Amino acid sequence: MTFSSMLAGENPLTEPIGIYLMQVLLVISISRLIPLSFLKQPRIVAEVITGIVLGQSGLCRVPAFASNLFPPSSFKILSNTANFGLVFYMFLVGLELDPRLILKNFSRAFPISAAGSALPFFASIGASALLYNEYADSGAVAFPPFFTFVAAAMSLTTYPSIARIVTEKKLQTTPLGQTTLAVAAVNDIGSWIFLLFVIGLINNTANTAVGAYIFLTMILYTLFLWFAVRPFLGRLVDLSGSSDSLSQMLIFLTLMCVLISAFFTQAIGASSIFGAFLVGVIVPHDHSFAVNLVEKLEDIMDICFMPLYFFTLGFYARIDLLTSGMDWGMIVLFVAVSGLTKILGHTLAAKFMNNFTWKESFTIGAILNSRGFLEFIILNLGLHANIISAKVFTILLVVVLISDIITGPIASFICPSNTAAITKADTDMMSAEPLTSKVGGSLKLVLPFEATFSRNLNILCYLPNMQSVPGTMALTDYFKSSQLELSVTSLRLIRLSDRTSSVMMATTDTSDTLRHDPVTSIFRSFGILNGIKTASRLGIAPIEEFAEQIVQSAGHCNLIILPWSVAPSGSFLPNNHNLGEGLTVRGAGLLESGGVGGGAGNPVDIAVQALDSVPIDEGLRGPLIEGVQKLATCNVAVFLDRGFGRVAIAPFKTDGALAFSHVTTAEVIGNSHATLAVLPEDAPVGNSKKSVLSYESTRIFLPFFGKMQDCIEALKLTALLSRRKNVHLFVVHVVRAVADASDDRDALYLEGVRAHLVKQNGSNSQVQFEKVTTGAPVAALSEKVKAFLRDGRDLLVLGASIYQQAYEFREWVDKEVTASVLTVQKRGDGAVEH
């Protein structure tokens, strides 16, 4: 085999592989450069437009361009590649369609589906008569196959395009969204059944009996796949369910089923796309197998294969033939007839058969007007079967393009993205009633400090990754008290994107995803072991809407905890040490996603993988934290975890080699206040392993700046934390050098706090109060913090306003303080603008 070389002055486009690679490069790059994604338009539209621009209506009208880049002899290879990709794309489409969704909602969805499909079908028959009389060759094709084909192309709906719109509008958890998805799923099954009938008809116009045989054979084959192949695949999935990643053998067997099924349906006279689609439908959705499989295949399909297929559709379009007013009038007619009847049919059925309001019913109808890819496939089949001419193909192609383009804006106009009302907490974490009041010209303590507490503490903990789990568990465990009704809800957020796997997770039951998520599983186990009432929630939103999603998920919680983990220098844990039970420690002992089942196969970790790898916020600031602070109607605590509640490791010798002792995960979870003694580097090391678990006190330092509400809330939160045994609390009252009238009030307030803590803890041996008068608070606090707080196991608590307003203070906390940090913002205060 010889190759043409540009270095030898030869044209590389004379080689078939050279032409093919250049064609693929042009198609993929141009379709990605068309900026329709910014306008919330389906990528299919850009790919079809790419075909129109490069095809027979565009640049291929230039002879030099056509002969060098798209010669007729080269198009066969490109077309075969596109059709091969279409087979696996149909498999992915089948994977998106969960049969459980259809069975669960069939009785509610079928009437809407039937009405929404029947009305545009019969209306399109009348419109197709005009199209047939004006453009069709009556000698080449009879009217029945023509109108059946045209009516099918104008009335069918595909599930994936509907699912994306519903997800973008955040309606998937609402009754409206769930009904729309169910109708789309039923529509999809009906569309494929009708498409099978149409293919049998157009491929066997001379002998309709053959078409009937094909239809019956496909029904029997579908039953065989469902009752014979599906249990076999289900058994394989169950056997691999304990593994976080898909085995190559399981993927191999599944893809072999796709190819065999595609070949069989092609061989009997149906299209290969049916065989691939049916295998996708029967693949079990248990153990998140379908989501994981889609995640494996979707990128290569979306980037390389499918642009080629939809490009070929645009390539065959002949926009240059649409030269008369009649041509464009037909386009307007079909857009109006197919769109209005489709919307009207679904709207009326939703209103009178499911008791939705008129607005909700109209929203369902508008969303279900989306056509998706199935109409494009039907048009391509009709063109190559000579049912329609190139001009009719172009007219209908433009109709489908316009329908897809206008569906999104219409749905947005009728029903903007669902934004659930942000619910105000039933109670504050603590009451805002004042402790002091002027009586007879002097300040008096009018309310005991303990009377300002609510009996219920409902916490929402946002858990972005496995790193946030240990510190959050330790912190919430410190709130546990016999005097407090404590409940904790863990929140996991999945980044919503246009990836198929992301949409699948958004539109399917999230309980299975949460059940297999290692982060929520560990947190749930922690709650059970420690007697804390826990719950889990899963949210799916674009990354820019995470803050809003967190606040909405808080519901009636009165405290939101946003944990953020960093790895400071001088950490008290050895680097890259394993704590046992699969927990990997780096730097400050942060748990990585690779530990405790957090492998790449976990569906939540797959969805947030890119998010986990790039920190959203630095330190205690950033768009996510500021967004939550601005929107929240309850207190917000930002937890900068530098190893709070973690264990330290003591070295020991075994067989003459230096090693490190470790504790089990159960010991860590069950004793969140436990630490391990850290031996100096030059300490003598014994020859046998010793138990080094010790229960040292946790130290909490609070600088109190007086009248600011954030400082008061921080003080109250600290009082809750200090109820735990072995907590040593140090409160420093920072007073400005210039006296202020509020200083006496603050001093009396702190006296009430001190009295409460002494009563609560039985003695004041673990509680220390000190007053500091200074004009340089950072310098004064720095020395005391260094002397009192040891490392990341201890905690610095402060009001959020102090951290946000004072740059010098913020720099000190971020760069010099080695302890963990908890900043508290009072409900409704909002983040401070800079």
From TrEMBL:
GO terms for cellular component: membrane. Residues 26-414 form the Cation/H+ exchanger transmembrane domain. It is found in: Membrane. The keyword Transport applies. The chain crosses the membrane at residues 20-39, 44-65, 77-97, 109-132, 138-159, 180-202, 208-229, 250-280, 300-319, 331-350, 362-383, 395-414. The keyword Zinc-finger does not apply. One of its GO terms (biological process) is proton transmembrane transport. Its main location: membrane. It is a multi-pass membrane protein. One of its GO terms (molecular function) is antiporter activity. Keywords: Ion transport, Membrane, Transmembrane, Transmembrane helix, Transport. It holds the Pfam family Na_H_Exchanger. InterPro entries: Cation/H_exchanger_TM, CPA2_transporter, Na+/solute_symporter_sf. It comes from the Eukaryota. Gene3D superfamilies: 1.20.1530.20. This is Cation/H+ exchanger transmembrane domain-containing protein.
